[in-house]
Amino acid sequence: MQQYLEPEALAWPLTSWDETAPFLLTPVTIDTARLRDGTEFSLVRRGDTWSVRVGWMTLMTSETHASEEALAERALARATRLASVLVGGLGLGFTLRAVLDRVPAATKVTTCEILPALVDWNRRWVGEFANHPLADPRNETVVGDVFDHIKRSCQAFDVILLDVDNGPRALSSASNQRLYGDRGIRACLRALRPGGVLAIWSVGANARFERALGAAGFDVEVLRVPAFRHGRKKHVVFLATAPGPDESSGSRAASPRGQE
Ligand SMILES: C[S@@+](CC[C@H](N)C(=O)[O-])C[C@H]1O[C@@H](n2cnc3c(N)ncnc32)[C@H](O)[C@@H]1O
């Protein structure tokens, strides 16, 4: 059962919290917020671990972030230009931090987050986990649906990182389905500069999505990356490279370079 907490108690420092109040190992809901379609998100604390949940599904925790960082690392390493990077979903800010730690001072980073409360939660409570990435002057935070932001953009980004769901088949809200369909994939291709990189986080593989990326013209790799710093569990990063300036932008068959 979850408990609600008096706001003044939240001012306690993180470390002394569990020593003095071990009963708090029970999950405690710190705040909840809803999208317009009614989808409820909650910020939950259990001891020193914080998580963002959507209904019963855990979207992100402060303990597990190796694959969210790998999403950024692998995509940035593949990119040939890093003038402009889009991060879709803020979560607890680990992907954004991994971007900021790897791009030059002149890179423009845009973080698009659908839930205004999530941005507030980062500023008030959980920003320290990823070393307060929202405070970096290279970052501009846009509150809104990343699908709409991508749809409005044309050859605007060198890299697009999407971690808004637990994968193409485990959505945080129903409307995110459009990101993984042909329309969403084509919008991403259009929003990228030639040769740009689209990377999508997923809890597991998805052959249909991989084929759809390939059919749209992306060169697709499916990377299996460690979920934790130590341990064998893996998550998946779809790494999709747009045709370069000299390549035809016509559709071609999916040609995955194999799993890692
Ligand atoms: C799994 S978390 C992201 C975790 C993040 N990579 C990190 O390192 O902490 C998913 C985030 O995407 C946001 N989100 C979900 N759908 C979205 C959408 N359509 N547009 C923008 N943000 C979205 C959620 O509110 C949540 O903050």
How does this structure look, described?
The structure is a single chain. The chain has 260 residues and is an alpha/beta fold. The chain folds into two domains: 59 residues, no CATH class; 176 residues, Vaccinia Virus protein VP39 (Rossmann fold, 3-Layer(aba) Sandwich), CATH 3.40.50. Helix content is 26%, strand content 29%. Strands 8-7-6-9-10-12-11 form a seven-stranded mixed sheet. The N terminus and C terminus are likely disordered.
Tell me briefly what this model is.
This protein has eight helices and twelve strands.
List the helices and strands and how they pair.
Layout: E1 3-4, H1 14-20, E2 28-34, E3 40-46, E4 49-54, E5 57-61, H2 66-78, E6 84-88, H3 94-100, E7 108-113, H4 116-126, E8 139-143, H5 146-151, E9 157-162, H6 177-180, H7 182-191, E10 192-202, H8 207-216, E11 219-226, E12 234-241
Parallel strand pairs: 1-2, 6-7, 6-9, 7-8, 9-10
Antiparallel strand pairs: 2-3, 3-4, 4-5, 10-12, 11-12
This protein binds S-adenosylmethionine (SAM).
Residues 52, 59-60, 65, 68, 88-95, 112-115, 118, 145-147, 163-164, 172-173, 176 line the site of S-adenosylmethionine (SAM).
